[in-house]
Amino acid sequence: MTQYFFILADSELELVPQEIVNERCILNNARARGKAPEKILLDASHHHPAFGKLPDSERRGRPDLVHYFLMLCIDSDLTAEGKLRVFVHTRNNDVIAVNPETRLPPHYPRFVGLIESLYEQRVVPSKENPLLELRQGVTLETLVNALKPDEVLVMNPVGEETPLLEKFGSIKSERVAVIIGGFSRGDFKSDLSKLKPTNISLGKRMLKVWTVTSKALCAIEQASKMPEVTLPKPSKPRRAPKKKAE
Amino acid sequence: MTQYFFILADSELELVPQEIVNERCILNNARARGKAPEKILLDASHHHPAFGKLPDSERRGRPDLVHYFLMLCIDSDLTAEGKLRVFVHTRNNDVIAVNPETRLPPHYPRFVGLIESLYEQRVVPSKENPLLELRQGVTLETLVNALKPDEVLVMNPVGEETPLLEKFGSIKSERVAVIIGGFSRGDFKSDLSKLKPTNISLGKRMLKVWTVTSKALCAIEQASKMPEVTLPKPSKPRRAPKKKAE
Q1: ipTM field
Q2: Most buried of A115, B8, B53, B241 (most Cβ within 10 A)?
């Protein structure tokens, strides 16, 4: 059985950064939600007027991408069969480990509230029942190495275009990390080269995080249902058959 | 080329019903959003305290399911290739037709606002550029018949468990309607029998709307990439082989 680790890497999930914590749109949004401004998640949809002051402003503040990724992974057959563990890695090297038993709120504002609680408490709902756990200062490389994968796949438009079903159908490794970018624009910020990954492109069209996640999950599930094709090993040259079998 | 029509049927999307329009949680939520209470979408996550007065309360108020369905469909390869048209049918027989050019907000509260505008204006963003159109009083049967499908498939746990890749790989019809339930509990409310559908079950586990949608999309995409398997037709009984091939 192959154990898969899905990692949403460099995802655009973070608390409101200090440099814009006093911007009007942030203060208004925090007040409306009854929270301190430095304890709310940065959200491009609410806080865009303050984004001019942030570097990388065109890609930041996308907790919704994390939400889609988690909802798809958690309800997958792979999770139900115990073959998938899921991690979220962020632009600030925060890592969220997700217990496979977790049921997350499908309602986005509740998900945002839950992640904000996680940043306050480091674990939710409680230490006795840790469904989500936050570790800070963990690079993507550290996370991947800790999982000891035999193979690292990165869903990356710069990679080779590979039919997913074939790729996953041919996997023999016991532990496979699948890395998906948690951003809507640009490239990975983490250095992937040390992970010696296989880059897999799904084609020229820029795909959304939910589409990439869904394609990877489905291909693994489909591949596991396909009859195994055992190709003859070209070990020794065989004698030529006397007659073709017809 | 097969043209697919994905229909989210009996989906739990509706404006706040008249009988609970004066409940405190509805009034508060409407005031906070600066809208009239009868013009906001019913949402189980915000309005649950008022649900006791509604029949079918355990399943109503789930615009989030519609959002997941649409986000997956719209970014799919099928839509990009012009092979998919998407419709949302609701418990009140409202039908939303989605222009394949539509790009919806991934941010859930913005999606809710957009659908509320659609209920006010019947078309958004404008009549000249109709990306979403609302028709009311259209039953599922009327909608499906209008699409003139050669084949109707219903993703239905009561159906026969069918490997999706095989099912979609064997489709020869030109127009195929795929019906997915837009609710989290219970059964279809519409009468499906007149559509003479093929019911397809994905197994015993109750799956979320996004999982079913994603599986159906991926299976169609994968099936279209598979080499066509032409099985030998067992037309005449063959002579028994003299010896088993080993």
Answers
A1: 0.91
A2: B8
